[in-house]
Specification:
Structural class: alpha/beta
Oligomer: single chain
Helix content: 40-55%
Radius of gyration: 17 Å
Shape: globular
Strand content: 5-15%
Number of strands: 6
Largest sheet: 6 strands, mixed
Length: 196
């Protein structure tokens, strides 16, 4: 048992679909989860109720995760909620597709090691969606979400920083079936690999 009543057997695979906002993570992750018959954990979906409560408490727009008051109050707990849920399912032998930017967690070796540790012994595969700035801007404008307003007001969107762990690079402009095929070929990072 792991201390929470879950027996550790053969862990499922953790699939991380990561990349900048507007790169198409949710679309790819949903298709991947369906194909792999895996649980889908989309950080934005998981934390949406928490964001609404925090936003109301601090007087921010309902879904504006980029509002500094909301972001500061939430901290890393949005990622924590997703990772704790993922680990519980992985321990039950179920594959999990986790979708979130993971831009800091995968770009810095120490944080990448911590992420690897949080997922336990489960094999890990990382699919990184690469998307040029002009394409991301076009997608964010088309999406029209309140949470994207701050990103679009900047003169330039945040630059992409590729992960330091082994990963599959997927161009956001590829057809979805090509993206899916590339994601499924992402290299496996074994549970014992503690560093990128």
């Amino acid at each position: 048992m792991d201390g929470r009543g879950v027996s550790e057997g053969e862990a499922g695979t953790a699939w991380i679909v990561a990349g900048a906002p507007g790169s198409g993570k949710s679309t790819l992750a949903a298709r991947l989860a369906a194909q792999q018959r895996a649980f889908l954990l989309d950080r934005d979906v998981v934390i949406a109720p928490l964001i609404r409560v925090i936003a109301e408490l601090v007087g921010a727009a309902r879904d504006d995760l980029d509002d500094p008051r909301v972001r500061d109050a939430l901290g890393d707990q949005g990622y924590e909620a997703v990772l704790v849920t993922a680990r519980q399912n992985l321990l039950l032998g179920r594959d999990v597709v986790i979708v979130a930017p993971f831009t800091r967690a995968l770009a810095e070796p120490r944080q990448a090691r911590e992420l690897r540790k949080r997922l336990g012994s489960a094999p890990l595969r990382v699919a990184w969606l690469s998307c040029p700035e002009e394409e991301r801007r076009r997608r964010l404008e088309r999406r029209g979400a309140t949470r994207d307003a701050g990103k679009l007001e900047a003169a330039a969107l945040a630059a992409e920083v590729e992960p330091v762990v082994r990963h599959a690079v997927i161009d956001c402009r590829w057809p979805i079936d090509e993206q899916l095929s590339a994601a499924r070929r992402a290299p496996v990072i074994a549970g014992e690999e503690a560093s990128p």
